[in-house]
Design brief:
The complex is a heterodimer of chains A (about 110) and B (about 120). Chain A has about 110 residues and is an all-beta fold. In chain A, about 0% of the residues lie in helices and about 50% in strands. Chain A is built from no helices and eleven strands. Classes of the chains: A mainly beta (about 110), B mainly beta (about 120).
Chain lengths: ~110, ~120
């Protein structure tokens, strides 16, 4: 199993550009989510999905879109990049169920918006 | 109000000594889970240990143990016999199990940067 994979690892955008961060998992996990990590802030939830075709907003959804057409993939779209979106982005997945199921994280994408 | 509080921005420990990283949490749920993750300088998030709110015994995983004090709402991570490779950022996180959507996310603290000195 590859686990949770993310592409690209690094990306530089100019303000106003759009792009899609890719996330895939091969563990047949129902739940997938996107977090951003900023210095001194821990990880904050952007969007999440409980299954194909079902998505919802997290704490900081503005400026981001998601879709979940398959169990495996959960792309994150930046509609019009802003410097405030400079961050490290993590995709995560886990099995549905109780509180104890471990959440697996991808390696992260470091995004810089100029 | 913060749901997860890590009051130690940075900690130092001598190699081979034990260290405790503090974590307090806030929830009104009876059923919840507490996690610790390690993030080395390479950036990946590594799961360390899990404690369920109904677990009667403190969780242990090798050199990691979780000192769970439910009445005090604390879930401190204890690392025994520190190694140089333990130098990293450590995050405490909580998953609640009820209340619209809260089962689907982890709420993270801001982290503690641990430095192990030789």
């Amino acid at each position: 199993n590859a686990g949770v994979t993310q592409t690209p690892k690094f990306q530089v955008l100019k303000t106003g550009q759009s792009m899609t961060l890719q996330c895939a998992q091969d563990m047949n996990h129902e739940y997938m989510s996107w977090y951003r990590q900023d210095p001194g802030m821990g990880l904050r939830l952007i969007h999440y999905s409980v299954g194909a075709g079902i998505t919802d907003q997290g704490e900081v959804p503005n400026g981001y879109n998601v879709s979940r057409s398959t169990t495996e993939d959960f792309p994150l779209r930046l509609l019009s990049a802003a410097p405030s979106q400079t961050s490290v982005y993590f995709c995560a997945s886990r099995l549905a169920g109780g509180a104890g199921n471990e959440q697996f994280f991808g390696p992260g994408t470091r995004l810089t918006v100029l | 109000a913060q749901k997860i509080t890590q009051t130690q921005p940075g900690m130092f420990v001598q190699e081979k000594e034990a260290v405790t990283l503090d974590c307090t949490y806030d929830t009104s749920d009876q059923s919840y889970g507490l996690f610790w993750y390690k993030q080395p300088s390479s950036g990946e998030m590594i799961f360390l240990i899990y404690q369920g709110s109904y677990d009667e015994q403190n969780a242990t995983e090798g050199r990691y143990s979780l000192n769970f004090q439910k009445a005090r709402k604390s879930a401190n991570l204890v690392i025994s016999a520190s190694q140089l490779g333990d130098s990293a950022m450590y995050f405490c996180a909580m998953r609640e199990t009820k209340g619209g959507g809260s089962n689907y996310k982890l709420t993270f603290g801001k982290g503690t940067l641990l430095t192990v000195n030789p």
